[in-house]
Structures are given as C-alpha cells and as structure tokens.
Amino acid sequence: MLGVSIVLMVALTRDSYALAGAVSATGVAATAVCSPLLGRLVDRYGQSRVAVPAVLVFAAGMAAMLLCVHHDAPAWTLFVCAVSSSAVPGVGAMTRARWTELYRDDAAARHTANSFEQVVDELCFMVGPALAMVLCTTVFPEAGLLTGATLMVAGTLAFAAQRTTEPPPHPRTTAADGTAAGAGAPLRIPELRMVLVTFLATGALFGSMEVATVATVESYGSGTASSAVLALQAAGSCVAGLVFGTLPVRGSATARFVTGAAAMAVAVPPLLLAGNLPVLAVLLLLAGMATAPTMITGMSLVQRVLPPARLNEGITTVYTGLLVGISAGAAAGGWTVEHLGADAGYAAPAVAGALALAAAVGGARRTAPRAGRARG
After folding, report:
1. Counting beta carbons within 10 angstroms of the beta carbon of residue 178, is it exposed (0 to 12), middle (13 to 18) or buried (19 or more)?
2. Stated pTM of the model
3. C-alpha span between 125 and 207 (Å, rounded)
4. Residue-level pLDDT at 173
5. Residues of the chain with pLDDT under 50
C-alpha cells in the first residue's frame, strides 16, 4: 500500500505526478540502502531488538509526511520524510529467516513454507494497491498512507512479539583463526548474486507490466477494469504457488530457478498480440502462473546457501533488488508507453523477462560446480 499511497497522496494534493514519482523514488532509493544494513543488525542483535525501534522510526517518518502534506509544507520536506521513513523493517525477510531456522534440515517443509509465504505475498499485492487507491480517492488523500503505515506498525509489533520462533542472534565474534565469524558478505556468494540480478530484472518485469497493463486496458476503452485485470495476474501466481507448494522437490534448486525464469520470459511476449480485453486477461493469468515458482525457488536457493549469521541480511538484500527493479521497471514502462504507444507497452516487460532469463542462465553456469555438489 505504501508506494501507491504516497504517489496518489502527493499527486492529489500537489497536482504533480512528477513530484509524486520523485518522492516515491527517493523513498525506494533510501530503502535500498537502509534495508540490508537493518538486515545485518537483525542478524547480529536479533529480530525483535531491531524491528521494534526501526518501525518506530518508520512511523515517525510517515507521521511527518502526513503532517507535511496536510499542512502544505514545502516540497523539499516530503523528500526528507521519504528518507526518514526508509527504516521499514523487512518483515518478509525475517519471516523467511524463521522458516529457514525451523526447517533447516527439512528441504520439503522449507519448500512448502516458502510457497505459503509467496501466496500470502501475492494476496497482499492483489488487495493492497486496490485498497490504497480506494482510500486515497474516496475518503481523503492521506487515508491510504495512514492506513498502510498503521498496518505496518501493528503487524511488525505483533510479529516481534512472537519470541518462540525467533532465530537466535549471531553476535560478531572472532573465530580461532582470527577471522570474524560470519564476516563474509552475502554478495560474495555466487548463488545469491545470481538470484539478486535475476530478481532485479524480475522486479523490472513486474513494474513495467503493471504500467503496460493499465495503458493497454485504457486503450481498449475499459480503464476501470485495470485493477481487476491486474488482480488476475496475481491470482495466477497464487494458484501456481499453492500447487507448487504441494509438489515434491526434485532436481537442483538452480535448475528449477532457471526453468521458472524461462517460463516468465516465454509468457510475456504473447501479451503484445492480445488485441482485446478477454484475451489479455487470460494471457495475464497464464503469465502470473510463472511468477510464484520462480520466486519460491529463488528464495529457497538463497536460504540454502546463506550462513545463519548472515541470513536476514542476505534475504533482505535480494528483496531490495526486487524492490529497486520494480521502481526502475515502472519508469521504463512509462517511458515505453509514452514514446511508443500502448500497443508496444509490453515490450518493456518482455525485455525484462529476457534479461531475467539471461541472468539466471549465466549465474547457473558460474555456479554449476557448486550446484553439482549440493542438490535441492
């Protein structure tokens, strides 16, 4: 809800989508820098000890932004608030870290848990933006951000209160050979770099596809159906996630990841030939089905290769890549629609899908020796 709410709130109150996009982009950039650092602190000091103060800092930034918008403060204050609100805890990463700790020696259970988390994520992507749009446009412009921030604070505090499943912290210690235990940065792990780069392109696919879909549906004269059509894409991913979670884990995680990326790359280009709303809806549903297996397998691969002392930092880094990709993809999709027209809108996600596949294949080749030694 947060990104959509900020864009709508600023656009409605300041009558400038350029300012709204710039404020939102500033928040994304600040979050991209802050999130991995918060993940490192979580690994070192524990989830609850970091998440609670972080979400309070986030709440202060959101409250300041709401006040600045309501009282028509200068535009530069919105950018300051966007930066100060970047201390949002990575609850999704912390949740997956808990599943990893609980099922570290049970790959099948971990696969099911990751599938469940992905389905929940898709449901949030279906409901959140639509709810934000309704609140901002029918109640008052600040209503979406106020509701989203309240949910974030309440949910984080409730999550932090679940102490029995919290993984133990890993304070920075010195090993017998004089090196810092767990000191290796997650980005040094080839599998994590493969997933990170692939998720960057995957995020670009998501962001550009949303813009392309809105523009395409409007070109059909059915602009009000945009939310429903986008929900079909998320619904397809939900169904695929539920089915994928029930299937046994076979083959290497790297091979499954490449297969998922290939499915995404193949599913997007037919959208350029849709021609009408019913066909577009069916194609988006099918395209969505390739999403969940790729995301689930990517996260499973990351969880498998990360050391416990860097688990939250590594997962958060990967999710940050996805977030940055979504923001960049939305910008690329907007440029494509504006300069090439709605008919060519899906060219941007098609290119992003091809890049995601190239990143997955290239990464798989570089990690082949490691993958051959550690399957699943």
Report:
1. exposed
2. 0.79
3. 12
4. 59
5. 174-182, 371-376
